[in-house]
Amino acid sequence: MGVIIVHFTFVYGLTLLLNIVNIVFQTFFWAEDFEPYYFLEEKIMKKSSTIDIDVDIDLFQNDLKHIEQEFIGNIVSIFKISTLNKDFGFLFITNDDDSIYAYGCEICKWLSLQHDPKQPQKIDILNGRKIIQIDSGDKFIVVLTNDGQVYLASSDDSEWQTNNTFRLISTDDDDRFEMIACGQNYFLLLRKDGTVFALGDNEYGQLTNDTNSYDNLVDTGLKNVEIIACGGGHSLAITNTNEIYSWGCNKYGQLGLGDENDRNIPTLISFADCSIDSPIKNIVAGAVHSLFVFENGQMFGCGYGQHPINDKKQDESLPTKIPIENVQSVACKNYLDFSLIMDQSLQYYVWGKVKNEESLFLSPPKKLCGQPKSFASASAISCRSPITYGLTSTIHAFESNDTISFMGLLDNPDNYDVEFIIGDKRILALKFYLRMVSKYYSRMFSGEWKDSNKIIINSFSYDAYYSYLRKLHNGNIRINLSNIVELIDLANCFEDERLMMHCRTFIRNNLNKRTLCIYLPLIDKYELDEMHAKLVELIIDDVLPKISKNFLENKKNITKFLLWFFEQ
Q: Is the pTM of this model over 0.90?
């Protein structure tokens, strides 16, 4: 067989590489093998009652200090398995074919694996499956895959009897689920048709059944449900008609029904006395309390410690407004009596009973110092060690060495002269400061925006635009898979060389076969020549073997590829 040697310039070589990869993806295996990871992130965000989009993995350096750094660098998602007094270990998803690994003595025992302090153990039964949600209770863990399958693993001394492996949970072969939520000794499954099922302990009627059920799923009777959430022994659900139902344990009024009687039937919660005129955004539950977040930024709570005034009456059996505005997201755990709150300006608050506080309850919610950047980092301030809220992506944070922060000039209602309006949200800022730190804003505020005090932004999302303005005020920015496309476009549009450098670094460090479909259009659009060597490596190691396999299975593709190649 002869060898054809092709000589081409560097730029032409990069262009040819991009064309080859593009044609391979589009023709042979794009849809089947390479689901863009940001689609998975969207699924996670839509179907998770508690969301922590990304976290700096350095938060867990004490827990992971024995693991080889090369492995830690490959971790793209992390979940910590924990209860009130014990940590059971971690699950990691890596950029190696979305492989999932277990780490820790306890979780390895649950899965018949040998714990190695230096090397997490691969979970073969989940090999090749894309994980979109993980949740856990007391001595058990539940995993949801993107094809709607649910897997359960547990300790030997639990009631689940999973035989030291992940057990597939289903009512029949046609079942496909899109959300899970764990209580301390039971969990809920939301089927794609909106039906809610339950499995596990039924001490408080949380299964809507007469007895416990650890083997067969129980149909709760709820239909048309969009979001589910579990506390320690109580459950919440939102329907597609904006109705909230609760059932299970109600010792502290956490069901929000005006009494302290347990329910074994999902019961509609009324907000009539609260004058709610906004759609419900999210529901979350702690050990014995519940929180309801509305689209207008208001938040209501019921149950243990949810009375907004710190007096003798600390519990509340009806949904009562919590004294904090512009709530964006809330995080709870099914074994904790406090909640973490993030507002529109990305400030974090703690609300409820915190062990290391001198006072029993924090009322009103206490603003956390140290500028936490995620719920996981905020939890480290209130707990003995950081915890995760759901399956959480790891991030690359690019931070300034400057000690001066001008965050007080951003989103300050008492001192601003321009509003950036993005959809139904706004960001307040000062023109003189933006002119000082940005050539782009200096030019725009001296030109077409000179006399404008309201500027409508249509090209970028609120989150991306706020992240950029925040960077201009404190030098810090977090880049991840869900925002890299917008941030590099923003860096190019605003002629921000430093942000562009950060984006290039992020792509270079994270370019692999799992992310190639996301970064390929960016490499082409912004002519990221420094990616050439990595692309060659990926083509040789990952793309060409798949092409060969495809050619063997489909002879017509050989002709199609060769015709395209010689046309070049």
A: no
